[in-house]
Each structure stands twice: as structure tokens, then as C-alpha cells.
Amino acid sequence: QVRLVESGGGLVQPGGSLRLSCAASGFAFSLYAGNWYRQAPGKERELVATITSTGSNINLANSVKGRFTISRDNSRNTLYLQMNSLTPEDTGVYFCNARLHSIEYWGQGTQVTVSS
């Protein structure tokens, strides 16, 4: 059974940090590109960060450059998103995604709320 399970979300004050994790199982995670998306209330889902299957290349949305970083540990079948200097605009549900050509899998999402 294919599963992507996010964890690490929660409530944090502005300027704080969170580290999201996404544990993959049931498929060859190391062959798939890893992505983090987020969806704020009333807005469309947006791509936040991408990492290639080997971790050799990453891309970050302009809105998070310099604050977020994406990484992966293929030995643990896990994708990470380190989020620093969080602002209220980062609030939303964060989704993990794994993609290989036309095949993709999604996690159920984890809520991140940035508020004082």
C-alpha cells in the first residue's frame, strides 16, 4: 500500500521554525522527485519546493527562498521541509508529493499555523 505521511506541523509564532517530515512507504521512493505544496485558506495549492530523486538539485518558490529548504534521506524514505523565519503568510496545509513521470502520490497534509 502506497503511503505518504506528513508530520511536524503545528502552531508557531512569527519568526519561528518548523521541520516537516514525510515518510514514504509502498513504492520506490528513491526513484521519485519529492515536492512540497501548500494551500492557504481560500487559495489554490502552490508548489513550495522540489528536490530531485537523488537530492542533487532543488528548487524553491520565490516566496520561501532564503527561509525554507528541502532535503531527503532515501535510506529512510523520508522527505523534509525545514522552514525558518515563518510569517503568517506561510499558514496553510502542507502536502508532500512524490512524482515519477506521470505517476504521483500525495500525502494527507499537515497544518501549519503561524500566529502570535
Written account of the structure:
With 116 residues, this protein is mostly beta strands. Helices cover 0% and strands 53% of the residues. It is built from no helices and 11 strands. The strands form 2 sheets. Strands 2, 4, 5, 6, 9, 10 and 11 form a 7-stranded mixed sheet that branches. Strand 4 and strand 5 form a beta hairpin. The protein is globular. The chain starts with a strand and ends with a strand. The mean pLDDT is 97.
Report the sheet with the most strands, covering strand number, pairing sense and barrel closure: 7 strands, mixed
Mean of all residue-level pLDDT scores: 97
Poorly predicted parts: none
Q: Helix count, per DSSP?
A: 0
Helix-strand layout with pairing:
Layout: E1 3-7, E2 10-12, E3 18-25, E4 33-39, E5 46-51, E6 58-60, E7 68-73, E8 78-83, E9 92-100, E10 103-106, E11 110-114
Parallel strand pairs: 2-11
Antiparallel strand pairs: 1-3, 3-8, 4-5, 4-9, 5-6, 7-8, 9-10, 9-11
Please give a quick description of this structure:
The chain is mostly beta strands. The chain is 0% helix and 53% strand.
Keywords:
single chain; 116 residues; mainly beta; four-stranded antiparallel β-sheet
